[in-house]
Q: What sequence folds into this?
């Protein structure tokens, strides 16, 4: 059994425990923070696979922007509490601290070992493998049509959302007159 396999099992256990913490939490904000831990584990998996660019995208897009949006919506709607329970869940804080410390330890090890495990002759090839320049070149040369098709699909979805959520002025006036 190699050390990478043991590291994979340990990170997988952290991901599963964080997911269970997210599901069992009675506070929506704590659930979102457990989800951040889960996103960080996925980013560490990407580092293990030798894809540092995808790992950083995972952290910045999902753990950063998307989770800020989730937390904003949770706070805006006032949905911090999912269930009104009188009992305090004393296991949440120690579990979260333990998971984050274990994740930081394993992630630090992965970052240190990624630099030292690559032979010097292959370092130039390894560095350009997952670089933003290599990904951009592949995306805009080899996969240009699927990239543009996806952008058109997203544009059509945004227009559809605007059309579906737009309320006609006459309909709004009728709804307001019924309430009065």
A:
């Amino acid at each position: 059994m190699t050390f990478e396999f043991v590291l994979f099992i340990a990170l997988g256990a952290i991901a599963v425990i964080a997911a269970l913490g997210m599901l069992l939490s009675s506070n929506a904000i704590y659930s979102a923070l457990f989800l951040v831990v889960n996103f960080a584990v996925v980013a560490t998996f990407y580092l293990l696979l030798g894809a540092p660019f995808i790992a950083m995208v995972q952290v910045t897009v999902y753990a950063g922007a998307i989770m800020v949006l989730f937390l904003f919506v949770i706070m805006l709607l006032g949905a911090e509490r999912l269930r009104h329970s009188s009992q305090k869940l004393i296991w949440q804080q120690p579990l979260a601290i333990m998971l984050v410390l274990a994740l930081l330890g394993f992630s630090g090890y992965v970052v240190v070992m990624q630099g030292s495990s690559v032979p010097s002759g292959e370092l130039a090839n390894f560095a350009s493998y997952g670089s933003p320049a290599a990904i951009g070149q592949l995306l805009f040369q080899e996969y240009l049509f699927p990239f543009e098709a996806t952008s058109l699909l997203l544009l059509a979805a945004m227009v559809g959302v605007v059309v579906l959520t737009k309320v006609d002025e006459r309909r709004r006036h009728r709804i307001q007159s019924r309430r009065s």
User: Anything to note?
Assistant: The first helix runs from residue 3 to 24. The mean pLDDT is 79.
